[in-house]
Amino acid sequence: MKVRAKWRIVILVLFFFSLWQTGFFDPNRVAKIQNIGPFLAGMLPPDTTILPQILSAVYETIVMAFAGTLMGGALALILAVFSARLLAPPPIMALFRTILALIRTIPAILWALIFVVIAGFGPFAGVLAITFYTTGYLGKLFYEAFDSVSSEVLEAVRGVGASRLQQLRFAILPESANYILSQLLFIFEYNVRASTIVGLVGAGGVGYLILALVQSLRYSGLLTTILVLLAFVLAIDFISSRVRARYFT
Amino acid sequence: MTSILEAKNIWFTYDSRNYTLKDISLSIEPGKIYMVFGRSGAGKTTLLKILKGILKPSWGEILFMGRPTTSPDTAKGAYSVIGYIPQGFGIVSNISVFDNVLVGALSRVPTLHSILGQFPKEEVERAEEILEMMGLAQFKYQKVSQLSGGQKQRVAIARALMQNPQIILADEFVSQLDPLTALEVLNVFRRLADERGIATVITSHDIHLASRYADKVLVLKAGEFKLCKDGRSVSESDLIAAMR
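Output (structure tokens, whole complex):
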């Protein structure tokens, strides 16, 4: 048997094993799929009476995403300076890259759980979670952007006798500015969705409302919330992609 | 005449096996224009980077005002008065023409002041004078990315002049320009050489300009100088023969 065929069988076996382990071959569980009918029926018609409550929660989510994006972006910028090969000595660079990797290892929802424990329920914990998640993600993108600045530009600016900070201010930041702003906009789009997720563990915003609606079996309110959220996310995606295409490409 | 910068028996290798430069010696005197010709890969860019101090020679030494640049003080002094214009000009495209010119003053301005954009009045006035001299005054606040190739080249010269250079090293400087703009730029270098005594080393593979502008013509082939002649006495056929 060829090596490739053996691998196919191994992957197939692992796949069915994973399904079995997660209950896909349990008849009682599979039978519960039928619940999808009553669940969808319970969503209709959408409940518009809670619209003011939804709009307030969506507003809180967007505010959380905005604050978290800017704070995370600022922190990422600082950490990226110390993580860039062109700016920091190798031991400092290695230390800060490790810090960023550690921050990145923890997903947004886990950061939210940590900050809910530390700071209690509500959007404050959510903003902190988004900030940390954004820092890890953008920090890596920013230091990679710094390191990809044209060597000719750097050689020329170094060639006039500029210090490292001057190189950062007059060559590296201006040359990577478009990319940095474009990534900030992109992560803001992403953070609007992430803010919804972190809300599910009690860190404020529309996720918190979704959790409350599900727990009280108010599925028609859930549908309205999902539709409003969808409209906002699509609008933000549209505006952000237009701005990025217009100014940062 | 005493030389400002001197390369003595320079050897250079990137990979410890093949030598990009082999026993190169060159003496640069004030107010002279040197044109180094050679085909792609002949070692022209490497030579300029060594003269600038971006690369260290594997063997041999560079003397600045008669002193070896292995001493940190001499190296620092040389670094700040040697203007270097790389092939792609090395200008920062996302800032204004004026800011690019001010970059040339960075070694004289305290770091904190410069990063806050606070340049001394005399540096600002000097940058304005240079912009005027280079015909760039009307583009002062324009982003460099909006300029033409020839205008970008003038910005690169303006930044080098802002360093108060004694030497300008320009890599493949005229090759990317249309003939008229190339002549304009070379006239600028001639003027700087005659009026301010600034020496210029230009690498190129465009041999037509040699006799008209160069005081000294050198041909580099496979890392070695194959020709070193007075600019006025060199013919195109001499250059072609040396480059072959």
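The mean pLDDT of chain A is 90.
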